[in-house]
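Researcher: Next entry: AAA+ ATPase domain-containing protein (Actinomadura bangladeshensis).
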Amino acid sequence: MTTLFGEANARGDLVSGDKHVHMAAAPEAEGPPRQLPLDVPGFTGRRDVLDRLDGLLRTTGPAPVIIALTGMPGIGKTALAVHWAHLVSDHFPDGQIFIDLRGYARRGPVSPREALSQALRTLRVPSSRLPVEEDELAALYRSRLAGKRALIVLDDAASAQQVSPLLPGTSSCVVVVTARRRLTALVARWGARAMALDLLSPAEARDLVGEVAGRERTRREPDATADLVRMCARLPL
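Model: Predicted structure:
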């Protein structure tokens, strides 16, 4: 093939007279983000909540579906969010984003600006192109997600104020927020669906012990299994 600067061979290298210049291939575009943590092996229970979450995938409207999973520490909010996200990941071909907001970490929660910057880097925006102002970061974040089918998991939120700037503006996205406290402002202002997690049922707790200790063993030792369920207070810790 003849170009303005000489002949190009089959590999795209430029040949001009006795000079041969190797033209590096353009880097392949990176795929969409797949940031979900490892799913919990042998996840057990919460069938009713999983069914409710599945039902929300069929929700249509002008705004994104926002789900607030709340409950005490150790109740299994993150495990449930991650497990469900893996189950439905094929519904979100444009990516799954996971951000730990560190709502109750000793070093303090992640600021909205930090979280937005992290999300935008995940969406292939170079750090050198990130705006300084939080409002501009949020606008760019919404632009990047416009029309995309993406799942965003915001784990361990401290407040609705921390989460609000991270809400996309497109109805094709789904956001799952986990928090210890009920995020009433998120429900009132943005229409989030609140789901408060309770303790595992006795049957679910027994199933969980069986998953960990072995089902045959729990069948042989029902009294010891019941003791373990009581000791764990039906928390999936």
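Model: Note for the record: The longest strand covers residues 151-157.
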